[in-house]
Amino acid sequence: MMKVALLPVVSTSDEAARSLCGEDGAERVYYPMISDVFLSTVEGRTDYSVIPIENTIEGSVNLHMDWLLHEVDLPIQAEWIYPSRQQLIGHRGELCGEDGEPEYGRIVRVLSHPVAMAQCHSFLRANLQHAEWEHVSSTAEAVKIVSENPGKGWAAIGLTLAAAHYGLDVIRPGVTDHDNNYTRFLLVGREPFELRESPVRKTSILVTLPEDFPGALHQVLSAFAWRRINLARIESRPTKKRLGTYHFVIDIEMALDTVLLPAALQEIEAIGCQVRVLGSYPSFGSTAPELAQAAAESRA
């Protein structure tokens, strides 16, 4: 059975991994930090790493993107979209009144991962502006810390699964600011992902422009445009070599072995660009019906 490295048990990464692989399709190995997740696969202790890479509200997760681009060389083997539904979690008897409704004035500290906290910013500003906001390594870690510190007026933003796991209560469900909040995950590793199939395939590349070629980015985009190759996303990332110099991460809605794409990449290289293929991979759960089908398959 394949081994998958991911952030802690009952984190969003844990739920997302279960949605892709099913409950028994992979052995899940949990780590506290994203660096540990990546290095586990680099060093051969696991076959794949599960990486949350982009969110509807916050955009790219910069730290995770930088690890993928600069610290490791692990090809992308799959991507999938998973809904992010955050709850306010704590000890009900401590944080709620006799009617069972939350009394926010009792909360003195709220903990969560910075991305999850940003997803709930409007709720926090409206109800918990008086409290201390503390960032931790994952939503699961936040819930765990609160479970270990009863009587202090602490609460966490995390998942219902985490609340049940650590014996806490959902004080206020659905505190995410937007209902259409989804996170894009990548599965990275050295071997192709074969547990599930998808008719949708993508290719991701990293393009570094020549420094002495005005209009190079325009020519890069033109190489795709005149071939009618659709780009799902383009993002600039610092090269970390000199201020004002950037790579461009481009997600292409086409498999690498399609006739048109290799020619487009050759054209880009011909004008002096460096092209690094980050992966050509199946894509799952890009639409609501696909998400529902993926969830049903993972429960089957």
How would you characterize this protein structure?
The chain is α/β, with parallel strands linked by helices and 300 residues long. It is built from eleven helices and 15 strands. Strands 1, 2, 3, 4, 5, 11, 12, 13, 14 and 15 form a ten-stranded mixed β-sheet that branches. A five-stranded mixed β-sheet has the order 8-7-9-6-10. The radius of gyration is 21 Å and the shape is elongated. The two termini are 18 Å apart. The record marks 183 as: Essential for prephenate dehydratase activity.
CATH architecture of the largest domain: 2-Layer Sandwich
How many separate helices? 11
Runs in which pLDDT lies below 50 for 5 or more consecutive residues are 286-300
Overall shape: it is elongated
Radius of gyration: 21 Å
CATH topology type of the largest domain: Alpha-Beta Plaits
**Average predicted local confidence, pLDDT:** 90
Indicate the percent of residues in helices. Answer: 25-40%
Write down how many β-strands occur, each being a DSSP E stretch of 2 or more residues.
15
Strand content: 25-35%
Structural class: alpha/beta
| Count of individual domains | 3
Give the CATH level 1 class of the largest domain: Alpha Beta
Q: Could you state the oligomeric state of the chains shown?
A: single chain
Q: Terminal Cα separation, in Å?
A: 18 Å
Largest sheet: 10 strands, mixed
